[in-house]
Amino acid sequence: MTALWVSNGGVQQIAGGGADAISASGRLTGLWASDLLLLQVLLMARIPLVERAFGQDRLARWHRWSGFTSFWLMITHIVLITLGYAGATHANAFAELWDMIWTYPGMLLATAGTAALLMVVMTSIRMARRRLRYESWHLLHLYAYLGAGLALPHQLWTGTDFIASAASTVYWWSLYAVSAGAVLTYRIAIPAWRSWRHRLVVSHITAEGPGLTSVYLSGHRLDRLPVRAGQFFQWRFLDGYGWSRAHPYSLSATPHGQMLRITVKDLGDGSARVASLRPGTRALIEGPYGKLSGEVYRGGPVVLLACGIGITPLLALLGDLPYSPGQATLVYRARGESDIAFRDELEWFAANRGVRRVFLFGKRAERPSWLPAEYADYADADALRRVAPQIAISDVYICGPDAWAEAARTAARAAGTPADQVHTELFSW
């Protein structure tokens, strides 16, 4: 992409100075912004090979970084192009911007696209996300696709570096086609086909504790559904208003081809509705996603660190991993005894598969730590070595809130666990 800009005289224009240099810089930042915008789309297109290679957590971080970088490059592009054109015609910059919007082909659409992307960026700032419901954030985030689509006409009609050569045209059309094709294939076509083929319906629901509900789902040929313990789906239940907004829930039991189970904590409007689902309600799925699965297990000792609702994928993994008696240690962080979910199942794993269970109760420590406040005087890594003496040679699976999971991951690494043996799944958006 930068090479195409260079071949179209970008370096010479920069060297020449003046308004042409400003315009050339604006074109380059616009090209970078477009590249990163389409990279964002690809990162979250749920391409199976990419998901398995990097994991949804890492892809989401890259998506976020590239998104903010793309946005500021786009703003820089607008400012530099406006100043460059205004300088070339000795016009007022604001008048030049107004003239470009109203007279240049595709610029009205590009302006609408910029407004859509601005809305997405503003609602992606951490402070704004905390004030939004997940359902609202998810709906607003879809406008990123609209912003990318509305930017295309002005790039192809007036973008010098898009149409200057056959190579430029092939490059940009190919990039747009691959991005759009990935979204249509992996976010729409395959989920629609799997939902139609497997015809999942709610079999029954069970209350697991305060604000915690398990949903059991039956369907057609579930043995052909390519899902492993530890993975999650995006779920839509056809139970009325709001069905179109998907929610990510992990399997909380090892899939065995007959039935699936998810367990949901009441954290918002969408999750609260789960407790009122009726048997026979249809479910649409998108997935499976996530690399927190047995594919990465090397055999031998395994340590599973769960916090709160993070127990769900780890419970499924306990039933799936081929560890020997005494090789598995589950560390379960909760606020109190009453918050322990699946106690009967955990006792079964202890009695029948030799799983060691370590429960840690109490309020959060005042410092960043995976330990509760009661044990905050202990060093995180030292405490982990005490509860899991084989931590340095174990596969470690971690699932829970962002800050807790990061503290647990840091403790595992400090305790000697190699980076490629620490596997995480974060519950965040």
TrEMBL record:
Membrane topology note: Multi-pass membrane protein
Keyword Transmembrane helix attributed: yes
GO cellular component: membrane
TM helices/strands, residue ranges: 31-49, 70-88, 100-125, 137-158, 170-189
Coiled-coil intervals, chain numbering: none
Alphabetical UniProt keywords: 2Fe-2S, FAD, Flavoprotein, Iron, Iron-sulfur, Membrane, Metal-binding, Oxidoreductase, Transmembrane, Transmembrane helix
UniProt subcellular location: Membrane
One Gene Ontology term of the molecular function aspect: oxidoreductase activity
Cofactor dependence: FAD
InterPro entries assigned to the protein according to its UniProt record, in alphabetical order: FAD-bd_FR_type (IPR017927), Fe3_Rdtase_TM_dom (IPR013130), FNR_nucleotide-bd (IPR039261), MRET (IPR050415), OxRdtase_FAD/NAD-bd (IPR001433), Riboflavin_synthase-like_b-brl (IPR017938)
Domain FAD-binding FR-type: 195-295
Listed name of the protein: Oxidoreductase
Provenance organism: Paractinoplanes tereljensis
Lineage of origin: Bacteria, Bacillati, Actinomycetota, Actinomycetes, Micromonosporales
